[in-house]
Design a protein that fits this description.
The complex is a heterodimer of chains A (288) and B (238). With 288 residues, chain A is mainly α. Chain A has helices spanning 2-30, 39-57, 64-90, 94-120, 143-165, 167-177, 179-184, 189-214, 222-236, 241-261, 266-280, and strands spanning 133-136, 139-142. Chain A has one domain. Chain A is globular, with a radius of gyration of 19 Å. Chain A starts with a helix and ends in an 8-residue tail after the last helix. Chain B starts with a strand and ends with a helix. Helices cover 38% and strands 27% of the residues of chain B. Chain A binds chain B through residues 167, 170-171, 173-174, 177-178, 180-189, 288, and chain B through 52-54, 73-75, 78-79, 83-84, 86, 90-95, 99, 102-104, 106-107, 111, 151, 155.
């Protein structure tokens, strides 16, 4: 029983990271129609920014939230405005844009990764922060994972409130459901697309910072997280932000259960789940 | 002489190499209901899309209250006081009734007074108030029509453009929809609508234009058109 609770808690902790990662991808795909294959690279940059600030300048990793998030927000905004917007203007149909934007994201992936390798090399890096355990009854928690869970739940909550309570948040949701109709309401669609891509990159920055606190980081770590994000997005339903949040936690728990049996099987189990989902319920749990 | 609200001059529109509209000219004065009749594929929706900024015209111009609005993007067109109800309503399906209405007040100045506008719209359509927390996709056909109209009113527009109000509605609901339209005019809205349903739309309209194969082929008061041989044969089936 205790070991089961432990697995569940571990799953929730991991799930928080997955949820944030997937929310970012979901925003970029659901609204901006960009399947951002380079999402994991933004996560990697967020992780390394936090790592460098902590190990070279002694800045608290939690402060990395205030650096990695905003930096990647600006980078994401510029990338959408300069690269994807230009591409979109030159692409005749939305369907063609989905294809060509994915290729462009591939390009961004390799550029970002190569530059990162040039700067930081290919070694596995890491640091230790709040890496001790506390006991609640008989259950052992590592403190940094608890901190991560709290932060990720907070980020999810705040972002959900932003989407449901504010004028810009509502405009983002409207634009994801019907961009033309949103334009008729006075929403500047181009601005929304850039904003959504930027928020997606910001989420990647947050996720990278959280990942760097508990996992080893390396410059080629991105692809793994991109794939996890895609699985979660499909699990929760394409374009559904609450779906991505809940899907993230579900996949986290699933992964904890599998890796309690044998950690080596985790990735295989992910793909198996992904395939089953595509066959049985391709629209996802909360899909339209 | 009434104030001229909308003036379209020699508008030409093409999708790629296919020209859809040729030299379309028309005008709408303040407080009028003007209907544009035409069969499927005549280019009616294209005309509305060109006026409201969803499609850029090849040539010609559109002016609203004396200001040139040709080729402006939709979000800037709205700022001039134009509301467009596209075919099928184009509601935001996964947002609540109230959120759909709020989106109608998206422009900064309207957003500040959205509570007042909501009250106003709920007064016009009390049914929407009962359903305000429901998702738009769960509404009935008639309620969707109300919501789409209500959303138009949220921006406090001077003029409303309505695309195929009768489309996909049961005959009883079509009657209701046109009745609603008439009451919107009584509330001060100038109305331009495009329709295949000539019978009912001519009943509420002041004037009408007829669009065939991308050209205006006939125009006049609703009464004149109701009695013209061409209209009786082609659109009224008499």
């Amino acid at each position: 029983m205790i070991s089961f609770i432990n697995v569940l808690v571990n799953g929730l902790l991991l799930g928080g990271i997955y949820a944030i990662t997937a929310m970012g991808l979901s925003l970029q795909y659901g609204v901006a129609r960009i399947l951002n294959i380079a999402h994991g690279e933004f996560i990697m940059v967020g992780a390394f920014l936090t790592f460098v600030l902590h190990t070279k300048l002694g800045i608290n990793p939690l402060f990395g939230l205030a650096v990695a998030g905003p930096v990647l927000f600006v980078v994401g905004y510029l990338i959408q405005r300069i690269l994807f917007k230009t591409l979109k203007d030159r692409t005749p149909t939305p369907a063609a844009f989905e294809g060509s934007s994915m290729l462009m994201a591939f390009g961004i992936l390799f550029v970002v990764q190569s530059i990162a390798i040039f700067i930081w090399g290919t070694n596995v890096q890491g640091y230790s922060y709040l890496a001790y355990s506390v006991y609640l009854g008989d259950i052992r928690f590592s403190v940094n994972r608890l901190v991560i869970l709290v932060i990720s739940v907070l980020i999810c909550l705040l972002f959900y409130l932003f989407l449901t309570r504010t004028r810009t948040g509502k405009a983002i949701r409207a634009a994801s459901q019907d961009p033309d109709a949103a334009g008729l309401m006075g929403v500047n669609i181009n601005r929304m697309l850039a904003l959504c891509f930027a928020f997606g990159a910001m989420m990647a920055g947050f996720a990278g910072m959280l990942i760097s606190m508990v996992f080893p980081i390396y410059t080629t770590m991105g692809m793994q997280y991109t794939i996890i994000a895609i699985i979660v997005v499909v699990l929760g339903g394409l374009g559904s932000i609450p779906g991505s949040m809940i899907g993230g936690f579900l996949l986290g728990i699933f992964s904890a259960i599998v890796s309690a049996k044998d950690p080596g099987l985790t990735m295989a189990a992910y793909y198996l789940l992904f395939l089953v989902l595509l066959l049985v319920k391709p629209s996802g749990i909360f899909g339209r | 002489m009434k104030l001229l609200m909308l003036e379209v001059k020699d508008l030409n529109v093409a999708y790629g190499n296919v020209q859809v509209l040729w030299d379309v000219s028309l005008n709408v004065a303040e407080g009028e209901i003007v209907v544009l009749l035409g069969a499927n594929g005549a280019g009616k929706t294209t005309l509305l899309n060109a006026i409201t900024g969803l499609v850029r015209p090849l040539g010609g111009n559109v002016s609203f209250l004396g200001r040139d609005i040709t080729g402006l993007p939709p979000n800037e067109i709205v700022e001039h006081g134009i509301a467009y109800l596209p075919e099928g309503g184009r509601l935001f399906p996964d947002m609540s009734v109230q959120e759909n209405l709020e989106m109608g007040s998206y422009l900064k100045n309207n957003w500040k007074i959205r509570k007042n506008r909501l009250e106003y719209v709920y007064n016009v359509f009390p049914r929407l108030k009962e359903r305000r927390k429901q998702l738009a996709k769960t509404l009935s056909g008639g309620e969707r029509q109300m919501l789409a109209m209500g959303r138009c009113l949220m921006s406090n527009p001077k003029m409303g453009f309505f695309d195929e109000l009768s489309y996909g509605l049961a005959p009883k609901l079509v009657k209701e929809a046109f009745a609603m339209l008439k009451s919107l005019r009584d509330l001060g809205l100038t109305i331009f609508l495009i329709e295949q349903n000539a019978n009912q739309s001519l009943e509420i309209a002041d004037r009408a234009y007829v669009l065939e194969n991308g050209r205006i082929v006939n125009s006049g008061t609703a009464n004149e058109l109701l009695h013209s041989d061409h209209i009786r044969k082609a659109y009224l089936g008499l």
